[in-house]
Amino acid sequence: MSKYPPPHHLTHDRDKMISVMRHFPLATVISAHKGLAYATHIPVIYNETTGKLVAHMDRSNPQLSTFTNGSELLVVFNGPDAYISPSIYEVQSLPTWNHIIVHVRGTLKLITNEEAAKETLISMTEFLEAPSHKYRLTKENERMQRLIDYIVAFEIDINHWEGKFKLSQDKRGQDFLNAKEVLIKKSGEDATGFIEEMYKSME
Questions:
Q1: Percentage of the chain with pLDDT > 90?
Q2: Which residue in 112, 143, 157, 163 has a CA-CA distance of 20 to 30 Å to 197?
Q3: Which whole-number Å values give the CA distances from 123 to 29, 86, 106, 130, 189, in the listed order?
Q4: What is the DSSP code (8-state) at residue 86?
Q5: For residue 26, which of 59, 65, 75 has the smallest C-alpha distance?
Q6: At 100, is the secondary structure helix, strand, or coil?
């Protein structure tokens, strides 16, 4: 029986996976309870110091009913993706879809201290405002003070990493390079440097 995902579509390079998380922080947080799956799309930040993920969710979100300390969450970070037409290949092939995706699983810890919850909002804003930092959120912000009770902050201690980098690794020479160019064109100039970094050691 074949392995899935195919080994050549997986990366074990932790730095590359962290780079995906940092460049594409809008993640899908997935949990389940009594056979019912829940998913929420929220920014999730990787804390370089602790190695943990940090996020917050609207207190009215029904997914919070599945959150208990120590429960396991799946978080999906979606990087660039593109449809690959067989027309770009010199060797006959079939249509496919290339993508860069990171799955991480980890245990949940709710942040119940109000000041600690504020710190997560401040650090998240600082990360997302980089590099220009045109806006700074401070503890004295009155609006944050009024709304802090309407969110639930939490962190995730990662215990499993999986980098799914499907980038036409089964192709050779010009066909491999053509698929790379399609991904770059689809993703735009801003993503070119990131994609080039992901391809390092593959070519």
A1: 88
A2: 157
A3: 19, 44, 21, 11, 28
A4: G
A5: 75
A6: strand
Residue type, 88: I
Average pLDDT for residues 197-201, to the nearest whole number? 86
SS3 105: strand
Cα(156)–Cα(69) distance, integer angstroms: 10
Residue 118 CA from chain centroid, whole number: 22
What is the secondary structure of 9-22 as a DSSP string? Answer: GEE--HHHHHHHHH
Mean pLDDT of 3-24: 92
Give the Cα separation of 31 and 5 in Å (integer): 22
* Prior bond of 62 cis (ω within 30°): no
DSSP 65: G
Q: What angle do CA 166, 49, 46 make, to 5 degrees?
A: 35
Convert 158-192 to b/e letters by CB count within 10 Å (16 or more is b). beebbbbbbbbbebeeebbebbbebbbeebeeebe
Tokens of 84: 């690959």
CB contact set of 64 (below 8 Å; sequence gap of 6+) = 57, 152
What is the chain's length?
203
Instruction: Specify which residues 78 forms β-bridges with.
Output: 101
The domain defined by 7-80+93-168 carries CATH number 3.40.50.2300? no
Q: Is the dihedral of CA 109, 112, 116, 117 positive or negative?
A: positive
